[in-house]
């Protein structure tokens, strides 16, 4: 029997998860197939109950990460605290939800910079959905200090309040993108979580004078953005968003299979898919 897995979202056509997950199944000799499942929000009530007999598990992306929760029987502790789910396992009709985005960024930081989150100081550029999932997870892990810069300051304040609900001893500060009220040199790791840089010709999301040589800089965007290039020119260690994408998928794969994921096979396939996309083949 072929186990079926997939990505539910709206839209999902751009996703790089199928080659990555399918490479993992192939390398581990598991008869399984991962596909894209485009589900409009108004179709969730019909589609999700049908998944009980059709899918062994799935990932969930925008705009369903919160809405999916009402269909689930159980949430993992992290997903419960975050109020967001990107991975579901179907345990004989019992749906359990997880959130693996924060883990993805944690592992990417560990692999790229050999740095831990616990006790560390992290500055987030952006306060959207992805920044929130990672910042709240890092609050759970015991970060010492979190800074949030966001164009819409009200959203940075909302995220600050949510972080402090989870971890009352963490130091949290916020500002707009100018960072004029924050001493950014206090931070060791900077995480670029805005969508600025996705399009060719995009500027950097912040003035580069707030970036210091000792900063370890990671951009959630899957390519070498202008921001990463300029941080590198300043002497910073840098990483793009591929590591986060890889490790959130690795964790999902391990939740579904109960086995250790063949990380290198998944990474090679992901990099291959990215190269093909850059060359305009896919
Ligand atoms: P989102 O919820 O729409 O949030 C977008 C963020 O970008 C907000 O903070 C927004 O600020 C900011 N922003 C947008 N345009 C801006 C501009 N012109 N100047 C300054 N700030 C601007 O999106 P998301 O889901 O958090 O995703 C954010 C980025 O992370 C995307 O590029 C996405 O591709 C990437 N991502 C990567 C991974 C991975 O695995 N590597 C996973 C998830 C997301 P306002 O609040 O002021 O609008």
Ions, cofactors, ligands: which are bound?
A: NADP nicotinamide-adenine-dinucleotide phosphate
Uncertain runs: none
Shape: globular
Q: Give me the side-by-side strand order of the main sheet.
A: 2-1-3-5-6-4
Q: How would a textbook summarize the main sheet?
A: 6 strands, mixed
SSE map:
Elements: E1 3-9, H1 17-28, E2 32-38, H2 44-54, E3 57-60, E4 74-75, H3 77-82, E5 87-91, E6 94-98, H4 101-113, E7 121-125, H5 129-141, E8 145-149, H6 153-166, E9 171-175, E10 189-192, E11 216-219, H7 226-233, E12 237-239, H8 242-257, H9 263-278
Parallel strand pairs: 1-2, 1-3, 4-6, 7-8, 7-10, 8-9, 10-11, 11-12
Antiparallel strand pairs: 3-5, 5-6
Helix pairs in contact: 1-8, 1-9, 4-5, 4-8, 5-6, 8-9
Provide a compact summary of the structure.
The protein is of the alpha/beta class and 282 residues long.
Keywords:
39% helix, binds NADP nicotinamide-adenine-dinucleotide phosphate, single chain, six-stranded parallel β-sheet, alpha/beta, 282 residues, six-stranded mixed β-sheet
């Amino acid at each position: 029997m072929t186990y079926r897995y997939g990505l539910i979202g709206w839209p999902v056509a751009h996703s790089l998860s199928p080659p990555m997950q399918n490479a993992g199944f192939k390398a581990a000799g598991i008869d399984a197939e991962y596909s894209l499942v485009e589900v409009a929000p108004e179709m969730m009530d019909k589609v999700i109950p049908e998944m009980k007999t059709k899918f062994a598990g799935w990932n969930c992306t925008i705009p369903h990460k919160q809405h999916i929760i009402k269909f689930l029987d159980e949430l993992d502790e992290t997903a419960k605290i975050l109020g967001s789910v990107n991975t579901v396992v179907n345990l004989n009709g019992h749906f359990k939800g997880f959130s693996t985005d924060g883990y993805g960024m944690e592992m990417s930081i560990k692999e790229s910079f050999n740095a831990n989150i616990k006790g560390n100081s992290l500055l987030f550029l952006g306060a959207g959905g992805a920044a929130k999932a990672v910042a709240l997870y890092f609050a759970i892990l015991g970060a010492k200090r979190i800074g949030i810069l966001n164009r819409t300051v009200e959203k940075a304040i909302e995220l600050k309040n949510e972080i402090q609900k989870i971890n009352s001893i963490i130091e949290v500060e916020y500002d707009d993108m100018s960072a004029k009220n924050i001493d950014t040199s206090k931070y060791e790791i900077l995480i670029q979580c805005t969508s600025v840089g996705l399009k060719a010709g995009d500027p950097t999301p912040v003035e580069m004078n707030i970036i210091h040589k000792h900063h370890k800089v990671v951009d959630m965007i899957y390519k070498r953005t202008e921001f990463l290039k300029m941080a590198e020119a300043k002497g910073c260690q840098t990483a793009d968003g591929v590591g986060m994408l890889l490790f959130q998928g690795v964790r999902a794969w391990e939740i579904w299979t109960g086995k250790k994921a063949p990380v290198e096979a998944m990474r090679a396939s992901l990099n291959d898919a990215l190269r093909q996309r850059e060359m305009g083949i896919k």
